[in-house]
């Protein structure tokens, strides 16, 4: 697999990020597919978007994936008293997690190349803007969200 140079895209992405928000991108080869993950996160929570190109015999080539929300605060819907994950890989504390594959299909998949796992800069920027849009709705506009609890010191 070719080495991917993201330093140019990182400079563009860093200008888009609100204060206190970090950005990650990774592409990992699993089960003969490249799984792409974009993430934005802060101490209140994060959004990660993941996807992979899929080619099944008899079906059109398409991207499959999801848009996942990781919150340090329970969601306003449902009856989740305990966190979904005791330790979240994205926000580094317990989190409540929810996701949507339909959101990915309708909002992200069309922006990704169908013939290559090489993601062009414009697609990286689009997916990051989509993640930031979801982030703002969940963690900036929603005043009910609170940061991860402080770590205990010993």
Our count of helices gives: 3
Q: Can you give the helix content as a percent range?
A: 10-25%
Give me the strand/helix succession.
Answer: HEEEEEHH
What is the mean pLDDT? Answer: 87
Counting helices, strands and paired strands, the structural category is alpha+beta
Gyration radius from CA atoms, angstroms: 16 Å
β-strand number: 5
Low-confidence stretches: none
Principal-axes geometry comes out as globular
Strand order of the largest sheet: 1-2-3-4-5
Oligomer: single chain
Quote the beta fraction: 25-35%
End-to-end Cα distance, whole Å, is 44 Å
Q: Summarize the main sheet.
A: 5 strands, antiparallel
Strand and helix map with partners:
Layout: H1 7-16, E1 22-30, E2 33-41, E3 45-54, E4 62-71, E5 96-100, H2 101-107, H3 121-140
Antiparallel strand pairs: 1-2, 2-3, 3-4, 4-5
Helix pairs in contact: 1-3
């Amino acid at each position: 697999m070719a080495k991917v140079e993201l330093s140019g895209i990182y400079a563009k992405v860093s200008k888009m990020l609100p204060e206190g928000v970090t950005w990650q991108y990774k592409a990992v080869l699993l089960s003969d597919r490249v799984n792409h993950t974009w993430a934005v996160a802060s101490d209140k929570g994060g959004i990660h978007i993941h996807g992979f190109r899929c080619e099944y015999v008899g079906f059109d080539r398409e991207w499959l994936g999801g848009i996942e929300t990781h919150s340090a605060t329970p969601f306003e819907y449902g009856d989740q008293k305990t966190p979904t994950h005791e330790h979240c890989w994205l926000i580094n504390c317990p989190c409540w997690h929810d996701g949507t594959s339909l959101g990915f299909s309708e909002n992200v998949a069309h922006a990704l190349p169908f013939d290559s796992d090489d993601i062009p800069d414009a697609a990286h920027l689009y997916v990051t803007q989509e993640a930031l849009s979801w982030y703002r709705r969940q963690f900036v506009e929603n005043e009910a969200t609170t940061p991860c609890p402080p770590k205990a010191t010993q």
